[in-house]
Amino acid sequence: MKIDLKKLNTSAHASIPFDETIDLTDEKLYGAKPFQSPVHIKGVVSNESGVVRLAGSIETIYSTECARCLKPLEIPLSAEADMMLSDDPEAEEEDDLFVLTSDSVDPADVLVPALILQVQMTYLCKEDCKGLCPHCGADRNVTDCDCDKKQIDPRFAALRALLDSDKGE
Ligand SMILES: [Zn+2]
Ligand SMILES: [Zn+2]
């Protein structure tokens, strides 16, 4: 929802609150669409003696998977932002300055980047997740496969095959 900033100009101290749920289900990040849960934003846009600022928070559940064992994970994620809004086209976007492209602002445009900054490249289901066996794909947290024991030097694999076929007859 866009907030019409012209409404803020009617008095020196005006504020417009916002509180809404936004849909980021199509938002792509690291090759996935991790925002499958509702995203809640709330806060206020205010004008204090001509300085327009937006202060608010954003929260959601980030759907991803363990980087080692691929177990689905639901990570609670939240961020806060307190930014001045500038309509000066010469102004440079900074950490605490958001440059407006019109005389309205969509709080999501300010808050979603703050949320994405909180996202880590990878998550683990637990610090010491043992991951999947690269050979048989077994979840090593659940079961011990014996692939490690079976690993033999490829140079001996041919010999091993020979011995095995010998045994077989
Ligand atoms: Zn894991
Ligand atoms: Zn294995």
UniProtKB/TrEMBL annotation:
Pfam families, per database record: YceD (PF02620)
InterPro entries: YceD
Domain of life from the UniProt record: Bacteria
Protein name: DUF177 domain-containing protein
Lineage, opening ranks: Bacteria, Bacillati, Bacillota, Clostridia, Eubacteriales
